[in-house]
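Propose amino acids for all 149 sites.
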């Protein structure tokens, strides 16, 4: 990061950058020990960060991102630095995200005449599908109106 970029981030950005640089200088064995510990010894990282790192590594690998392990480790460190210990950060769980994606899919397939068909396809009542369509319509209008300002 350049000095200009660091000025855009909170005061601890320079410290975080220094930590990332130090982590990059570790050889692979030291890096693995730092993150995962050894068999009978506790890791330096909490298990939540280790799990987050593993999930991100798998996602990055599935998207053919080079250096996926190293990138995942650094992302986990950054996320931990900025969000760790905060009680006010809410991350939706998978079911909440699945519902949101399902609602968008229903909106995309809705043509004004297929309410009953969508209700059957998604295993819900026509009323619920209608409510989802109305919510998605409001969201679309809100997105478009922002562009008009």
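Proposal:
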């Amino acid at each position: 990061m350049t000095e200009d970029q660091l000025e855009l981030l909170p005061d601890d950005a320079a410290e975080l950058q220094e930590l990332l640089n130090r982590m990059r200088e570790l050889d692979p064995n030291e890096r693995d020990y730092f993150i995962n510990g050894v068999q009978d010894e506790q890791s330096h990282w909490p298990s939540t960060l280790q799990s987050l790192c593993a999930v991100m590594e798998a996602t990055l690998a599935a998207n053919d991102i080079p250096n996926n392990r190293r990138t995942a480790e650094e992302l986990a460190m950054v996320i931990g630095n900025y969000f760790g210990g905060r009680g006010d950060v809410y991350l939706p769980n998978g079911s909440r995200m699945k519902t949101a994606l399902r609602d968008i899919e229903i909106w995309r397939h809705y043509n004004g005449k297929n309410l009953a068909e969508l209700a059957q396809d998604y295993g819900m009542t026509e009323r619920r599908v209608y409510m989802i369509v109305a919510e998605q319509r409001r969201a679309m209008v809100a997105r478009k109106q922002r562009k008009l300002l």
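The helical segments are 3-8, 13-24, 28-36, 47-62, 68-83, 94-109, 115-122, 126-148. The radius of gyration is 22 Å.
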